[in-house]
Specification:
Length: 387
């Protein structure tokens, strides 16, 4: 695996940091979680449950080890400062300043371990007037303008069903920053602080549209919900309801695709108006809605199955688990969990570098002695720390 030999100390919780470290672990890195002895990662307690454990925690923490340390204790802080010397990367997701107050922030750790890459994931970043403000994914995409950009032009913003700022803004940009810093360290021999703001990461999803708005300046106009080319403003790019209450995604943006789409539904006359952002476009959309709504999803799948027109069904529930393309790509990996004596199916991360390792998620503190011993702690020191 490409990251064999890379050692990562993960102090993060919930989703953004743990998904980033999951990708690193799946690619061969050694990832060791440092968790509070009183409950550990908050995700461990969240439903739904797999036996006595959280299925959410299970999904994010394969191929990792766990060490429990109470970082409020001075001896645990001293142990972490010593432990970190054995690692290349540290990931944390506390509010800015928390690690500094404990004496284990970037400034302190980098002095003792100049090669350390320290990745701090937070809602608004390590600087700025709102750096200490509480928030979650929905708040971050709201502040970034992403939430306000989706939904009907005459209706409320559409709440995404997934965590855009957590994964796209936090996890993925953390990975980019970590890997870039590792490459830099090969040249300079020095680590660096990677400051990840989930709000800024969410803003990246608007880069195409907001970047164009900025370039136009006074010649442009503010972005509008449900009225732009790719957020519902054109009939050739949208979601249509079928007779049986299902939905069809139509992304026939290029003229050749939209012409083929209109011919397939028996209305080639709608091609020109499909690119009109005004009244003609609204009438064309209404015509398409009526046509698609008159037949079932299965009917339309048969119409579009063998043509190349950028039309796909909106899969729901477990349907995605039976998608032939995803199955063929090996996205759902079945494995036996020997710790729990059961077979489970893992959702793999989207980087394919060989067979997916499927070591089961750790129990809280399961590998404490092993991790500390590898870092050179004596048996007496380990017993004093862990009890």
């Amino acid at each position: 695996m490409p990251l064999v030999g890379l050692r990562v100390l993960d102090l993060s919780r919930l989703l953004p940091g743990p998904y980033a470290s999951l990708v690193l672990a799946d690619l061969g890195a050694t990832v060791d979680k440092v968790e509070d002895p009183q409950g550990g990662d908050y995700l461990r307690q969240m439903p739904p449950h797999l036996g006595d454990e959280s299925a959410l925690f299970y999904a994010l923490n394969r191929n990792k080890r766990s060490l429990s340390l109470d970082l409020r204790r001075p001896e645990a802080q001293a142990a972490l400062r010593r432990l970190v010397r054995s690692y290349d990367v540290l990931i944390e997701s506390f509010r800015p300043g928390v690690m500094d107050k404990l004496g284990i922030g970037w400034e302190a750790l980098s002095k003792e371990h100049p090669r350390l890459i320290y990745c701090a994931i937070s809602g608004y970043g390590q600087t700025g007037p709102d750096r200490l403000r509480a928030g979650h994914d929905l708040n971050y995409i709201a502040r970034a303008g992403v939430l306000g950009y989706g939904g009907p032009a005459d209706g409320p913003p559409a709440m995404p069903g997934v965590q855009i700022a957590d994964i796209g803004g936090g996890s993925l940009f953390a990975l980019v920053g970590i890997l870039a810093a590792l490459h830099e360290r090969q040249r300079t021999g020095k680590g660096r602080l990677v400051d990840i703001s989930m709000t800024e990461g969410a803003l990246a999803f608007l880069h195409l549209h907001l970047g164009a708005r900025l370039a136009l300046g006074s010649d442009g106009s503010p972005l509008r919900r449900g009225a732009e080319t790719l957020n519902g403003g054109l009939p050739c790019y949208g979601v249509y309801r079928t007779r049986d209450g299902r939905y069809l995604s139509v992304a026939s943006l290029e003229p050749k695709f939209f012409q083929g789409f209109c011919e397939a539904i028996g209305r080639p006359d709608l091609v020109v108006d499909g690119y009109d952002p005004g009244e003609k476009g609204l009438r064309a959309r209404a015509e398409i809605e009526a046509i698609i709504g008159a037949q079932t999803l299965e009917h339309w799948l048969s119409v579009f199955r063998d043509v190349d027109l950028c039309v796909e069904p909106v899969l729901e529930g477990d349907e995605v688990l039976r998608d032939p393309q995803l199955e063929a790509r090996g996205m759902f990996v079945r494995a036996v969990d020997p710790q729990r004596d059961r077979e489970v199916t893992h959702l793999r991360t989207p980087l394919h570098f060989g067979e997916l390792p499927t070591a089961p998620p750790p129990a809280l503190g399961q590998h404490g002695r092993e991790i500390l011993s590898e870092a050179g702690f004596s048996d007496a020191e380990i017993s004093a720390l862990l009890g």
